[in-house]
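[SOLVED] Need 3D model of a two-part complex

Original post:
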Amino acid sequence: MAGRREWTRETLGAGVRSGDRRALARAITLVENADPLAYDLVRDLYPETGRTFAVGITGPPGVGKSTLISALVRPIRERGLTVGVISVDPSSPFSHGALLGDRIRLADHFLDPGVFIRSMGTRGHLGGLAEATLQALLILDAGGKDIVFLETVGTGQSEVEIIDVADTVLLVLMPGSGDSVQALKAGIMEIPDVIAVNKKEHPAAKTMLNEVRSILALDLESDRRPPIVLTEAVTGEGVSELWDEIAGHRDYLVSNGLLDERRRRNLASEVFAVASARAKAHLERTVANDPELRRLLDEVQRRELDPLTAVRAIMIQVFRIDEDGNGTDPH
Amino acid sequence: MAGRREWTRETLGAGVRSGDRRALARAITLVENADPLAYDLVRDLYPETGRTFAVGITGPPGVGKSTLISALVRPIRERGLTVGVISVDPSSPFSHGALLGDRIRLADHFLDPGVFIRSMGTRGHLGGLAEATLQALLILDAGGKDIVFLETVGTGQSEVEIIDVADTVLLVLMPGSGDSVQALKAGIMEIPDVIAVNKKEHPAAKTMLNEVRSILALDLESDRRPPIVLTEAVTGEGVSELWDEIAGHRDYLVSNGLLDERRRRNLASEVFAVASARAKAHLERTVANDPELRRLLDEVQRRELDPLTAVRAIMIQVFRIDEDGNGTDPH
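Solution:
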C-alpha cells in the first residue's frame, strides 16, 4: 500500500473508491488542511456519490450522542451495512483521547473494516466546518459507506449549516434537557426528523418524552410527526428501535418522492453556506492586511466614522459591491 | 409634535437627541425597514454616542429574561437612571401581545417616560439582526438612555453577533437548564460576565447554582469569576443584588481600563458581522436573479458539477474573488 507521502490524485481516488481505510483517512486529512489535492479528489469522485444515507445527529453536549452512534453501529452492521462517522463536535469523545471508557466501548468498531470513525477540526479552514464536513461526507460516500453519521453539537441554530447536508436529522436529548425542550416549544430550534431521549433509566426520562410529545402535537401543519424513542446508549436499550425509526424516515422520504427534493435543497444550502463562509474569511483576511481598511475600523472606534459607513466602504473595497448590491469597478 | 410622515433628518435627529418617545420609535422602525433615512440619522448621531451602558441579556427561552428585565428596571429607575430595552428574541413576551400577565407587569414601565421598550424584527434586512440591533442601540444611546438592555435568545453560539455589542453580558438560567450548563462545561458556550439563576423558589435552584459555580471554578485562566445571583423575577427577589453585580462588572471594566478595549473589539466584530451578513444577502440575491448561477446549482444537484467548483465559480461571479482571495476583473 502507498505510504502517506506517495498518494497521487489517481492512487488516492482508487484507494477511496475501494474503501481503503488509509486512503479515506488521508483524504479527510487533506480536506481538513484545505489541500488542493482534496479539491481535485472530491471533484473526481463527485459523480459517483449520492448513494450514502447521511444521518445528522445533533443535541446538547453530554446527552450521549457519541455513545448512541457507537450503539447504532451494531444493528447497522448486523444488517450487513457499512458505516462512516464524522464528528464535528469538539466536545465529543470521538474528538478526544481522554475518555477511556468510551474508547474501549468503541474499540471493536475501530477494528471493524466496515466502520470508519473520524473526528474533524477545521482551524483556519477557508470554507469553515460546513465545507470540510461536506467534502468528508462525499469522500465516505464515494468510499462505499452505506450509512454516514454526522455528529454535531448544538442546542440551537448554529449547527444548522453542518447538519443541513443530512438526509435525516436525529436530535438527542436527555432528562434535564429543559433548554432544548423550551427551544423546540418556542420555535427557536428546528423540528428534527427523529428524536431520541437518551438515559431512559433516569426517573425523569418519561416526563421528558411526554413533554416533547406534547410540543410536537402542537404542530398541525406537517403531515409527519417525528417519532420519539427512549434509549439507553450505554446498554444498547432502545437502540435497535431507534435505528428502525431512522431508516423508516428514509423510507418515508423515498416512498413520497421527497429524498431528491431534500437533497437538492441541502446541496443548494451547502453551496450558499460554503460561499458565505469563504466570503467572511476573505473579508477578515483582507481587512487584516489592508492598512486603509484597518484605519476605517480605528475611525469607527474613535466615533469619528459610523459603523455602517465603514461597512459600505469595506463592501466596495473587498467585494466591489455598492449599497444596492451592484458591482463597481475595481480600484 | 411632528406626525409620522413629517419627520425629516433634522427633526428626527432633534427628536431622538431630546429622548422624544415617538422620535425614538420612528427611528427604530426606519432601522428595521433599512430606510436610507435611518442610515443618515445614525451617521449624524454617531459622534455623540458611547455614553450608554449596554447590557446584553441572553439565555434559553422560558427562563424569564423579559420578566427579569422588567424587574431590573425598578432599581435602575430608583437610582434616577433612564432605561432602553431592545428585544431581538422572537419568543420574548416583549415581541408578542399574547402574554397578558407580562403585559400588565410591564404596564407601569410603558407609561414611564424614562423607559423605552421595543422589540425588533428584521425580516429581509440586508445586514441582518446584528446591523439592526447595533443601529437601534446607537439611537437609544444618542437619545440619552443611561442603560440599554439587549435581549436575545440562545443556548449556544448563534446569538453571539447580536450580544457582542454589549459592554456586559448577563446569562439567565433556571433550574432545568441542563443543556446550557453542559454547554458551559464543554466550552461550547462563552462564559458570560454575570449569571442569574432565575426561579429561585424552585427546589433545584441551589443545585443549579452550585453546578454552575463548580464549572466556573475550573476556569483558572481568567482573573475574574462571573458572579452568580439567585433571582425570582416575578417577585423581584434578588433583582437589586443582580443589578449591583451588573453595575459592578461595568465598574470593574472601567477601573481596569478594559471598557475602551472591549468596545473597540465589540465595534470591530460588529462591523465584520454586518459586512458578512450583507455579503451573504448579496450572494443569495445574486444567485436567485442570475440564470447562469442557478444553472450551476442545478448541475451540482445532478451530480455533474462538484459543490466546491460551483462555489469557486460563484465567488468569482458574485464577489470577483478567486481561490487565493485575489480580486479578478469584472465580467
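Edit: The beta strands of chain A are 53-58, 83-87, 115-119, 147-151, 168-173, 194-197, 228-230.
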